[in-house]
Design brief:
The protein is built from 13 helices and 8 strands. The protein is an alpha/beta fold. Bound molecules: 2-phosphoglycolic acid. Belongs to the triosephosphate isomerase family.
Length: 308
Amino acid sequence: MVCYGGGEYRRPVVSGNWKLNPMTSGEAKETLKLLAANQRALEESGKDIPEVILFPPYPFIPLASELLEGTTVAIGGQDCSLHDKGAFTGEVSVSQLASLGCNHLLVGHSERRTLFDETDVEVNKKVHLGLNAGLRVMICIGETEDEFNVNLADAVNEIQVKKALAGVTAAQMEDITIAYEPVWAIGTGKVCDAPTAQEVHSAVRRVLDELYPNTGVAGRTRILYGGSVTPESIDVIMREPDVDGVLVGGASLMADKFSRIIDFSSPLLVRSPPRVLVAKEVVSCRDTLDESPIWDPRDGFFPPKHLL
Ligand code: PGA
């Protein structure tokens, strides 16, 4: 078995799917104001933070963009029409989303698949529409409870991944994120236990390796977990090496809860890029590092007299 978990560094993503909530723009405004304040504080704290994406209902997209301006939170559409324009009452196209400042598109959520009969073929068309409009696409996959109970999770997820990605090139995979959302864990309070999620994520990565061999795609693609994620469960699930983030429903509607999820504690976020030390710094910690100083133009003079 190939284990990808520890190989590539994949920046974690925390995303929030508001679905058909809240009921009014006034409520949305209150939540967004709090979220923006929390996010600013988090960003100013100097901590490494994950990428954050919010998927509000279409009418609240401009409000979300306005109130989250100045933060790094990106906005996305929860779905899109299969059509570009025309006589399709009630639909919203990818170009309309992009023109509102959306950078992301969610496709294939299980609620769209089950409640609105969305097929794998339609999911695939939406993936291409999103990519062609310059959006980054998050594809949701996941098995039902019955499928899970008879050990069909891997088979179902494999089919969904392969059908959703039909015709997507390795280069385009840079703009794809997969969200594994077991249907039985969505909105039910039943969180998939972390080792099980890890197994599924690792299986999905193997499918990506099969689809895009020798390209590095499997190691680079971020695979998120979704389903009843809360501030209480986030730290545990994020410890799994193949879980690269989360897609949060209910808990993303409460700014403080969502911010706590964004501020999850993980060894993944303390990695900062290595820094080249100047000679003075190397010398000053030579006892610890047991290294010789390397002159750098930033030292300003060579060799530093007092170090000779
Ligand atoms: P939940 O929803 O967090 O409320 O379970 C997750 C989702 O549907 O994306």
